[in-house]
Structures
1.
Amino acid sequence: MKLFGRRAPAPALPRLPAPLPDVFEPTTPLEQALVDHATGRIDRDAVLRAFSTARVFVPSHDDVTNAEPGSSFRPVLLDANGDVVVAVCTSALRLRGLLRATPDVASGIEVEAAWVIEHAGAELGIVLNPGWSVAASLPPRSDSHGER
């Protein structure tokens, strides 16, 4: 399985963590869209539009804080009921929910969500805010047209 231009690791992946009991206070427009969807104020398409234009935080097992372009980057992968998903946070503040499932996160990068979608490929799904009550997921691409 290719992942961001490299083969994905073969070992067993950590499972998605259960949501934190914390109250979720939105701090970004994407987080507000997730809250609005959870309360029925907007539909899934509105959330997808908000996601596609948002900047997101992609946690990494490698320290990429001061990394040069092209250096090592291993995004955090999780097992979501048999699907392999890349962990993505709406901001670095949301990393705490993920750390319970995989404490070896070294850092991460902030990127356009469209970049994540493009680089995840057909084999990987995307989970947004793993370990938080306000979360979302996109399954791996399942059709020949590459649509999620």
Note: The two ends are 18 Å apart (CA to CA).
2.
Amino acid sequence: MSENTRSRPQRGRDAQVSASLSLASLEIRARSACERFSTNSGSLIQSMSKLAVIKTGGKQYLVSPGQKLKIEKIETPVGKEVVFNEVLLVSDSKDTVIGTPLVKRATVEAKVLSQGKHKKITILKFKPKVRYHKKMGHRQPYTEVQIKEING
């Protein structure tokens, strides 16, 4: 076999076509999520018409104004405002802006409601036939925030 059968990274026009297809599918998903959100929340849609995807603590969150969520711990005192600059997507009922990788000049403002720890999880190590077992626990710290405003 003289020809290599492994797949190679796409180049040129093929890469542009696949990138545009993935961006189009992402935009369709964002619009359908916005429509689902609007139909599920009923009368609240007037105040929650914007959606954004933010990145914090190594995770991505789909947020809307007024929403409360628990994120990885950030060092901001309770009651203070925090601004998330890493915005990956901003969508409203009319259009969707997808970042490459971030949306320029887009921010999400939130207020810190509380700092806390999640429920304890137990870790159990066990090796058979050698009488080895070890039990440990862990409580992951979190910060609870309420989304105030989506700019951009």
Note: Helices lie at 12-41.
3.
Amino acid sequence: MGLVAPAVRADTSSQTLVADATSAPDEATAKQIAAAYGHDVVVSSEESPTIEIVAQADGLLRLTETTEPVRAQVDGQWAAVDTSLEEDAGMLRPAVSAVPVAFSPGGSIAPLAEIQAPSGQWVSQTWKLGALPAPTVDGTTRPTPTCCRMWTCG
């Protein structure tokens, strides 16, 4: 018969167990998860379209700040900005955008373009010189129709 070692119960009274996750609601929890599981954890309460704070396994925090939005809220969750144009409600819209914006798919549909201000109101640009040709959409690119090139910069 082999030797049987006596059972030893570890003292966990001073340790708080946390579930593994890639994000946490606050800095303290993010640091705790990062240290316990050895990977980066996003501090979700500090996230914005241009800011991300990450707790690292070594106990330090890393701030990443961008000059333009790289994420946007979609149904209460952060999603990476995706400027691929999709048809929606008769307009072309980016799949995920930090600022709501839409473009005419051509023809006589007005407005030519619209953007939503922080107040919630829409600002529109109309075209009163006849029907526009339908654009050729290539992923994130909507080439300017010949009729509008006088406004193209660069």
Note: The chain has a mean pLDDT of 82.
4.
Amino acid sequence: MAPLRRDERLVAAAEAHARFVAEHRWQLSARVPDDLHWGANCTTFYDRAVNAGYPPYGVAVFENVATGPAGTSAADIFGYLMSVRHEDPADPRVEDIGTGCFVRSSPEPAEFACVQLYGTTHIE
């Protein structure tokens, strides 16, 4: 398996969605319980990747989202993102990665959101 490549388009999409999730998580949970993959205007992670410039055809995009109280350790966040119920960056289809995190400090309590987007431009 080749190493993952950092893709600035996926980074931009991940950072923007992390901010959106941190600022609007309570609204998202009310609209679609426990589904943090929906973005502004009901965009999907594929929509966000393509809107950030990732190729629109012949691609696959995957997303992991973690949220919690500010001050959560990086090890705990990583462990959650890599848990069984999340997409696996070791999937042989994955070539590109973009990660973004955002901490919302007000209103209290302070919370974080981290988003990982994985993609490939070579699907069969």
Note: The helical segments are 8-31, 45-51, 74-81.
